[in-house]
Amino acid sequence: MSSFQTSPGTRDILPPHAGRWRALIQVFADGVESAGYQNIIPPMFEDLGVFQRLGDATDVVTKEMYDFMDKGGRHIALRPEHTASVCRAFAQHRPTPPWKVWYSGPNFRYERPQAGRFRQFDQVGIEVLGVDDSQLDVEVISLGWDFYQAIGLSNVSLVINSLGDAGDRGRYVEALGAYFTTHSETLSEQALATLERNPLRVLDSKRPQDASAIAGAPAIGAFLSTDAAAHFAAVCAGLDALNIPYVVNERLVRGLDYYQRTTFEFISGSLDSAQNAVGGGGRYDGLVEDLGGPATPGIGFALGVDRTLLACDAEECFSYGIPALDVFVIDTTGGSHALSITHQLRHSGFSADRAFEGRSMKSQMKSADRSGAQVAVIIGDTEAEESTCTVRNLSTSEQTTISSTELQSHLETVLGPRQPRRHTP
Ligand code: HAM
Known about the structure:
CATH architecture of the largest domain: 2-Layer Sandwich
CATH topology of the largest domain: BirA Bifunctional Protein, domain 2
CATH superfamily of the largest domain: Bira Bifunctional Protein, Domain 2
Strand content: 15-25%
Distance between the termini: 47 Å
Structural class: alpha+beta
Oligomer: single chain
Bound molecules: histidyl-adenosine monophosphate
CATH class of the largest domain: Alpha Beta
Number of domains: 2
């Protein structure tokens, strides 16, 4: 065993899994970019104050923050999510709204590690700032839904709720607090502690002891203002129009405090119930203002990459094959002929690998087979002397010797035309 191991709650994403990971992000990027969202890359750490806006009473802020004093005496935190950073960036740079952005990257929360719950976990997500329109809520939710469809996950359900406007939410929290206080003798110790900090979060308790009090608790629906109720009805109607199935759950409370009006979660039926939320989001109309910007409506979601891939494993979808190489170069001479041929092949747009350390022909042939390449280009003493190379089809074992100058056109007839590798804007 090596003397160092990954820290609890962190993992190495090794090949080929890392390739699958990147492919997942590419599917997400393709989907949201085709809907007008542009990539944003905020820093991984910020002033702690940026994240304190997620709520004084949330676990994320009170228990799970990776914060430290830096050498310049600043109180810094590793980001526990992206939304606050995106709003800070909006307040700082003042782009013209509507601002539609997408992101992907790691987040850090000091949680108790378990299957599907990590201390470093990745999200992909979108945020839109500057639009107050229920049709946007529908667009945002539908992009999350479409992503799960695109990767082949079928056992995912959409749960939605409205937390009302700031005033509605405040009145509801007060009523919930009063209700749970009168039922305090039935609540678990943990729920009582949560009640003091945030009555809403008591609704999220999974302890059997709290179930009956939660079942009788007032529901948010009765507290919605006319505007908030109309907004929510319009969101539901929009989802109906797009044939996106959903369940309204008035007990859906999210773990962060910035939400108002529409909130939603994507739940995988294939994961353990403690970690079955593969994504979530909602409106957060006060966050930009809280961070020093102009009053700006916002909405977005984040999907957990780790959990989404666990759900894909459970559903046996989004499989990933190691990309096959075009060519494997075998060299038994140790000269520079193989070096320049491999270099040239890559420049011409072929994917090519080679063996090193002058290993035997037999061992290099094995590496060629293992690489999945379709063709081996073999350079022995005769080939090196005569500036030729032997091209071997690795599936049929047919081989032919040609002049090195013909190699590119020969391979193009076998493997198809290639474009030189160069960035095209
Ligand atoms: P969240 O519900 O805290 O929301 O996280 C979103 C998703 O990230 C979760 O549904 C889950 O899949 C994944 N996730 C969260 N914590 C962990 C963890 N410890 N290990 C593995 N996966 C995890 C947010 O982060 C909001 N910023 C979403 C949002 C965007 N709301 C509006 N815009």
